[in-house]
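Input for the complex:
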Amino acid sequence: MTNSITDLAGSKCIFIIGSNAAESHPIIMGEIYKAMDAGGVVIVVDPRRTAVAENAHIHLAIEPGTDIPLLAGMMRHIMDEGLYNAEFIEERVEGFEEFRKFVEGWTVEEASRQCGIEPSMIRRVAEIYAKADESAVVYCMGITQHVCGSDNVIALCDLTMLCGHVGTEHSGLYPLRGQNNVQGACDMGALPNVYPAYQPVADPDIRAKFEEAWGRPLSDKPGLTVVEMVRSAGSKIRGLFIMAENPALSEPDVNHVVESLRKFDFLVVQDIFMSETARFADLVLPGSSFAEKDGTFTNTERRFQLVRKAVDPPGSAKDDFSILCLLGNALGLNFNYESPADVMSEINRLAPPYGGITYDRLERQGLQWPCPNEEHPGTRFLHQGRFTRGKGLFVVPNHVAPKELPDEDYPWYLSTGRMFAHYHTGTLTRRAKQLDREVSRPYGEINSEDAAKLGVGEGGAIRVTSRRGSIVVDAKITDRVRKGSIFIPFHFAEARANILTNPALDPRSKTPEYKVCAVRVEKGES
Amino acid sequence: MKTQQAMIDQAKSLLKKLLEDGEATAVFGLARGMGGVTAPRIFTMPDELDSLVLEPKWPLAKPAMEILRTAPGGYRLAVVCRGCDERALVELIKRNQVDADALVMVGVACSGEQASICLCDRPYPSKLDIGEAAHGVDPFDDPGVKYLLEGDTHTRMGRWERVLKRCVKCYGCRNSCPICVCDPCKLEGEPWVRRGIIPTEILSFHLIRAFHLADTCVACGACQEACPAGIPLVTLQHAMRRALREGFEYEAGLDVNEKTPVLFDFIQAPEKDRPIPDWINTLRD
Amino acid sequence: MDCRFVRTTCPFCGTGCGMLLKVVDGRVVDTLPDRESVVGRGHLCIKGWSAHEFVHHPDRLTHPLVKKGDSFERISWEEAISLAAEKFRGIAEQYGNDAIGGFSSAKCTNEENYLFQKLIRAGFQNNNVDHCARL
Ligand code: SF4
Ligand code: SF4
Ligand code: SF4
Ligand code: SF4
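Predicted:
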C-alpha cells in the first residue's frame, strides 16, 4: 500500500471497494472506524451487504464485475464539475489527454445502466471523494479477482491521480493483502519475471549482478506462473517443488489442478500438515510453523517485522531455512548460511530498497521499505512530492465483463471469498478449536427469498453446480447477498468452492476470476 | 512524589529480596528487552530483575492466574500489581480461581495521568508497596461516558447500536478480562450467540457479557483496550458498578471476604426496600 | 516450570499484528496481543488470538515421507535430500533445465522466499518460480 495502516484513521473520506475488511482485515477495519469517529465519510462498493457495508455511511451494491463502469461514471462527473486537481495533474502526471477522451466516452447515465447504481448516487459519491481534503481508497480481492482485475486497479489509480489524492499522509491506495507474507514473497522475487526488489530478469545489468553474486549463469527468459506450470504438468514441467502452498484447494477449477498434480514426474511438497496437495507428492518434507523459526514477514504496509522462534519443530521436522540450505548444498549451490540473519545481509547487498533492513533495527517496530541504508528511517508513505517512476501516468482501463455470466442453464452468480474465522485454505485455522467452533462446515450464503423458493431452511443442504463441477454445502440464509447470488467461502477441503470457479485469467496479473462465475443452485440431498 | 526511577529501584530491591528469601518462586512483571521493548516476563533469578520496568500499563492479573493454574505444587508467584490487578486477583480468589497462598501481591501506584486515561477512580491497590496514591477521576465526568448514558432509552439504544454493530467478534474483550473465567463460555454458541457470523448479536453477545461481569468487574479497562473496533465497553460496566455501589454499597475487588449481593442478597434475603437496580438510568439522579 | 513470552508476528493475514506467544516448558500454550507493537497496537482478531492452536496439533508432519505405491513411508533426512537432488538433477539432464519449477510461499518468511527463488534460479537456470498469492 502507498501509506501506512494507521494513516487511515486520519482520512476524511475512505472509499472501500471489493473489500470486506471487517471480516478479512478486522484490525485495519478498526482504523477505518477511527476515521469515522473523527468525522470521515466511509463509502463501500460491494454487491453484497457485507459487515463493512452495514457500518458505512453509504453502500453502493453494484452488479458484480462492473467496477470500471462505476469508476468511469464517477470520473466523468468529477471532470464535468471541474472537481479534479488540475495543478497536481499538470505537475505530476502524464497522459491526461488520452485519458480525458476515455472518460468523455462515458456518461453517468451509461455507467448507471451498467452498474445498477442511481446516477444521482454516482454523482454524490464522486463529489464526496473528490472534495474531501484527503481521501483514501481501500481495495482487496473484490477488485483483483476479475478477468479485468489489473484494469480495475488501473482505474482506481487513475481516480486517485485525477483528484490528487496520493502522496500525502492520509490519502493513497490501500490494497489489503490476503496472506501474511504475500508482500514479502513478491518483494523477494518469488515471481517469474523479477529478482528480489522487482529487478527484471530480462535486464542484462541486473542479471550480471546476480550472476556474479550467486556464481551461476542465469536465464534472461521470464519463467512460468503457477497456473501455467500446472497446465504444463508432465509436458514442459516435469519436476516441481512446492513449499507450503496448497494449490489443490486454492487454484480455480481444482479438479483440473488435481489431475495435473498427478502428472509431474517428481513432486516435492514441503509443508507442516499433509495438505490436499501433499497427498499427491512423491516426497514430503516436514517443515516448521511460524512459532518454530526465526525470520521476517513483510506486511501489507511494506513493513518488515521479526518472526521469532518460540519452540522446536515437532519430531524430526526442520525449519524451512535449514531444509532449503540442505537442498541448495545438495545441488552444489553453496548455501552455507549460518542463520536467516545471514540471508538478510545478502538481501541487503543485492536488493537496494531493502539495503538498510537489518535484524537489530527490526527489534523495536520493524521497518517499512524503501529503506536503502542503515541511516534511512524507512518510508511511511510513498510518492510524496514525486512518483517513484518520476511522473505518474494515466492509463486507460479496459472494461471486460466477467467471462461467465448467468444464463439459462446456470442462472446464479457465484462469488467466493473469506469469512472472519478462517484463513486461506483452512489448513491452519480449521485445526484451531476456537475457529472450528465458529464454523466447522462448508456453507453458502443465499438470500431468504431464494431459500424459500428452493424450499431450504437454515443449515439445509444445497447443491451448487457449475460447468466444472458440483459441491454440496449448508445453506446460510442472509439478506446480505442479493437474489440470484450465492457466496461461498473457499476454506473447506470437503466442499472445495474452487471446484466451481472459472479459471479465466486476468491476462496481465494472471489472477483468476474467483469473484464471478455462473452456477445452478438446487436443494441438496441431505 | 517519587520519580519513576526511584520506584523501579525500590521495586527491584523488594522483589529481589522475595526471590532471595524464598518467599516467591518467581516474579511476574514487565521487563524491557531487546530494542527497548517492554513485555511481560517471569523472573526466576534475582539478577534478571535488572530489566524490570513498571510502565506501560499492561494488565497482568489474567496471565498471572493462568500461570498459577499450570504451576506445580508449592509454586509461589509474586505479581507486580496495579490497583486494578490487585482488585481482579481479589475477585479471582473469591471465586476460587486463584489460591491466595500461592500469590504474593506487590502493590504499585499508578500516576494521575494513567488514572485519567483509564477513567479510574482508584488508581492504587489497597496494599500499596511502591509509589504514592494519586487522585482518582470520576468516570461519569467524562464526556464520552456521559454521551452514551444520557438521553432517553431510544436515543441511548441508537447510540449503542451504532457502536456495538462494529464488533468483529474477536473475543478479545472476553480473552483479556481477568475475571471472565466461565467454561464453557456462554458467548461461544447457541442458544445465545449465533456462530459464524458478524456482527455479533447486540443483546445476547454484548449484554450477556456485560451482565455476567456486572458484580465482578473491577473496571480495569482490559476489555476495551483489547477491542479492535474501539467499542467503549467499560462504559457499560461503569454504569452497573455505580448501580451496585448506590443500591447495595458494594464494590468488587476490595475485600476477599465480602460476598457479592447479586449472588447472595437476591437469593438469601431479598431485603424489603432494596430496588432491583435500574441499570440504564444510573445517571438520572 | 519454564514460562516465557516470545514476541512475534501473526502468521495469518497481511496486516501483520504483533503478538506474544506464551511458551511453557517447550510448548506454545497461548497467544496474547503485543501492546507495544505498532501494528495492531494490542489488538488481534479471532484468528490471531488462536494462532497457537495449530502449532502442536497431532496431525503435524514429523518425518520426511516418500511415496511407495499409494502410501507414504518414512525416510531419513539424508535420504530425502539426496533423493530430491538426484531426481531434480535427473529431470534437468533428461528434459532440460526448464523442466523444473517451484511454488514458493506467501506463508513463509522473506529469507525462505529468497532462498527458494535463488535455489530455482541458480540451481536450474530458469525463472519458473511463483507463489499462490493471487488469493
Ligand atoms: S485502571 Fe486504575 S489501577 Fe488500573 S492501570 Fe488504570 S489507573 Fe491504574
Ligand atoms: S473492565 Fe472489562 S476487562 Fe476489566 S474487569 Fe471489567 S469487564 Fe473485565
Ligand atoms: S473486543 Fe470488541 S470486537 Fe472483539 S468481540 Fe469484544 S466487542 Fe467485539
Ligand atoms: S490478528 Fe487478525 S488482523 Fe491481525 S494479522 Fe492476524 S489475522 Fe490479520
